[in-house]
From TrEMBL:
The keyword Zinc does not apply. GO terms for molecular function: ATP binding; ATP hydrolysis activity. NCBIfam families: urea_trans_UrtD. Residues 8-248 form the ABC transporter domain. It comes from Marinobacter nitratireducens. Gene3D superfamilies: P-loop containing nucleotide triphosphate hydrolases. Keywords: ATP-binding, Nucleotide-binding, Transport. GO terms for cellular component: plasma membrane. This is Urea ABC transporter, ATPase protein UrtD. PANTHER family: CONSERVED COMPONENT OF ABC TRANSPORTER FOR NATURAL AMINO ACIDS-RELATED, HIGH-AFFINITY BRANCHED-CHAIN AMINO ACID TRANSPORT ATP-BINDING PROTEIN. SUPFAM superfamilies: P-loop containing nucleoside triphosphate hydrolases. Signal peptide: none annotated.
Length: 248
């Protein structure tokens, strides 16, 4: 299918906390279907940027658009999520006592209170989606295992799977490979790159080897604005970027 135009458009966005500019005239455009990595030293504003996109933090100035139709600054957090913006925080928060399958099932329920009766009444297309997602996250064989016995990496994939259930258009992922083994990192790289094209993915990550392995385009944040943008080779050879990282 043909995609065009940005899925996310942020222009001249600023936000201050007690007079300190955490985000300072930030301009960021994410294309539809793109996989983008955001890097930058601690305090660069990466978390605050994600908070602004999801509506958790309201900027003081600027504009934030989702596609060409949705002005995110006029919307609250739940409504923004409903547009198809999913966020994966660093720590996995799966339901350990439920099976892998049940976790995905629960993610499909928009009203979590109806969960206990869901299995019996589940629509066929939900089952199909669960099968698709199990395949994508590589947990088919563990579908009936309680999530509590999964490895750290498997829990992260399950949580990404839970977000994928609703077919988000933009997935925001915070440090997906922190604490993972090399093998789990490779699998995560495969998973995230396989999502790109179908949805847009923005990954905040500190592991430069991992960023290099997945991203065609990297944005470097520093002091709340974009310091450099381009391929990993381009940004890692940028003297300004080198200075910021060596000075950390
Ligand atoms: P990063 O995720 O890149 O490490 P953050 O977005 O967490 O950076 O933080 C950017 C800056 O804004 C930091 O200096 C941080 O201390 C400050 N900051 C973030 N959130 C708040 C807040 N709610 N109140 C005060 N200062 C904040």
């Amino acid at each position: 299918d043909v995609r065009h135009g940005p899925i996310l458009y942020m222009e001249d966005v600023s936000v201050s906390f007690d007079g300190f500019k955490a985000i300072n005239n930030l301009n960021l455009t994410i294309d539809d279907g793109e996989l983008r990595c955001i890097i930058g030293p601690n305090g660069a504003g990466k978390t605050t940027m994600m908070d602004i996109i999801t509506g958790k933090t309201r900027p003081d100035t600027g504009s934030v658009w989702f596609g060409s139709r949705h002005n995110l600054l006029t919307m609250n957090e739940p409504d923004i999520a409903t547009l198809g913006i999913g966020r994966k925080f660093q720590k996995p928060t799966v339901f350990e006592a439920l099976t892998v399958f049940e976790n995905l099932e629960l993610a499909m329920a928009t009203d979590k209170r109806i969960f206990p009766t869901l299995t019996a009444t589940m629509k066929p297309e939900y089952r199909e989606r669960i099968e698709e997602v199990l395949e994508m996250i590589g947990l088919k064989d563990l579908r009936n295992a309680p999530a509590g016995i999964l490895s750290h990496g498997q829990k992260q994939w399950l949580e990404i799977g839970m977000l994928l259930m609703q077919k988000p258009r933009l997935l925001l992922v915070d440090e997906p490979v922190a604490g993972m083994t090399e093998q789990e990192m490779e699998r995560t790289a495969e998973l995230l790159t396989s999502l790109a094209g179908k949805q847009s993915v923005v990954v905040v990550e500190h592991d430069m080897g991992f960023v290099r392995s997945i991203a065609r385009k990297v944005t470097v944040l520093h002091q709340g604005s974009v310091l450099a943008e381009g391929s990993m080779d381009q940004v890692s050879n940028d003297p300004e970027v080198v200075k910021v990282y060596l000075g950390e």
